[in-house]
Amino acid sequence: MTSYSNQTSSAARFTSFLRNYYIYFVLVAVVVLLSTANLDQFALFERGNFLYKRNIINILRVSAPLLVMAGAFTLLMVSGYIDLSVGSAMSLSAVVYAMLAINGVPFIPAFALTVLVGVLLGAINGFLVVRLNITPVIATLITLSLFKGVALLLVQDGVSAIKSDNFLKIPGWFNDYGRAKVLFDLPAAFWVAVAVTLALIVVQNRGKLGKYAAATGGNPTAAKLSGINTGRTVFLLYVIVGASAALAGIARSSFMSLGDPLSGDGMELTAILVVLLGGTAFSGGEGKVLRSFVGALIIMMLTVGMLTIVPAYYQTLVIGSALLAAAASNHLVSRKGKES
Amino acid sequence: MSSLTENIPQSLQREKMSDEGFITSLVVIVAVALFLVASLLVPNFFQWQNVVNLVTNNWAVISLGIFVSFLLVSGNFDLSVGGIVALSGVLSVWFAQSPDGANALSSGLGMPYPLAILCALIGALAIGAMNALFVVRLGIPSIIVTLGTMMVARGIAQVITQGSQRNTNLPDEFGFLGNLTMFGTSVKLPVVLMLLLFLVAVFVERKMVFGRITYWIGANPEAATLSGINRSWHITKLYLFSAAVAGMVGILLASEFKSGFSNRGTLMEFDALVIALLGGIAITGGFGSVIGMFFGAIILAVVTSAATGMVLSPDWQFILKAIAVFLAIVTQTWAVARRNR
User: Fold this and answer.
1) Mean pLDDT of the residues in chain B
2) Domain boundaries, chain A
3) CA-to-CA distance for B313 and B77, rounded, in angstroms?
């Protein structure tokens, strides 16, 4: 009898250990896999070494948009809500940012205005969900369509994206945010993503918002009864997600040197994928910002790494399967943890 | 047993039905009113042929909408249908292509066409079974599962077509089903099938145990289980039916265009959901009607075609869709709340 209870408690300890740290093992495994695989013949992985500096820099700066969104999205999902409009919000921000820049607005005002647009987009989501009480999935599907439509409308007919033409030129500084080496040869966009993530880690572990988010996701009624303004918490989280989607849009737009109204398509799926991969329960209540950040790194390494091994048309299948696998394993692990 | 199940729901039904009937007739009235408004604004809109077009142009989405609606009524999403349309279409082409093509994309498995259709349908059902497995057995939220299976289905289609399409080396009878006109008019077989399916769905929903069980599950899952309904099996069946219809749509579209295109059906899952929501089906479950979904499709068609008629850029369609769904949800919630006050 005693040995049995010992067994269960050690099993419980094991599952909780697994739940907290498995993502780092996956990260190491992916790095090892990609570094040992023979990638000589591919141009992207110069000199056949995954751990080659330029390759790592390349992956990290391509990842900036996803990394900057992962943290905020985690907090939102921890509170039991979801935002399917992040991809469209990102596209719209990218278009707005490029439009401002091409019309002569300097870097800092353009940046600030675009983030403000993101805040507004998030506020729209928050308004629909909190004030009008529309189911999050439906509300953000509505805004997915809305933001995408606005982004497409802002770009003239017959042109695929905001880019330099005969009359207007994208200014020279436009590229710097996403590409210019600032620190350790990495661009500002990456460091902003790191800073945002660090800030959100502090918010989650020390701040009220983090506690409220977890309480709202864990048991909304109990949270409300203990005096938490769940409505305001959720609204604020949507605003933060909107702002981070705008940062992602700026990073992508700057990296690509254009404002593409389709650049964020499918980003909502990738965001859900990395958050689930990070072990956040979709029923809400638990999850860690840092683990989603690592999840985002893993997904980006895999997608970039995969491009060198298999043709691009395998990507949808692999991401879809990864999403299902992450959802299933996440579910099984978290259920085991709860049962014991 | 039968007297027991008949007694309980009927007392429940009477009150619920009235709200439902109210919303459904509201949707019908809005559809007709919008058509009349569009007729005033857009030249040549008020024509019989245009009314026919509104229905025939949307046969695919309406067909998909039927089981998407049933699933919504039962409290579940199905966003995988667009992916299944692509998959089954590509599969039917790949299976039917003769194996002696010049390159990889022009040679298939060389099955006889009926067998190719059957196998493509089995492929579609496999995705439906996957939905059911993850949603019912593992209890993972249907929105995430069906987004995942949508990508898996489309991903397989992309791998088979290498990211583009297969349209060569097909047997002559391949284009028959999708282009068969009926009754000496220009109405094609898929449209007639859609209407038949719709009528059957209305009958099942109103008059058959299968339909009523769907409502009970959506209205109160716990009570449904406690009263002896096998909820898992019922949802599984709904996902399988939905996948089968999506598979059929994919095969008919592939036949109509004589090609298997991996991007066909993109956004169809969203449109099917949109028309169901426009038609007054509530995502909270247990409320709504396939009839509403049908007229929801008409509303969307009127709005988008009127917008195109008024020379708005096609980019407007996303905004119009968003506004339409938003208004539909807000007014429906408001109307029901006001009515029951």
Assistant:
1) 83
2) 2-339
3) 31
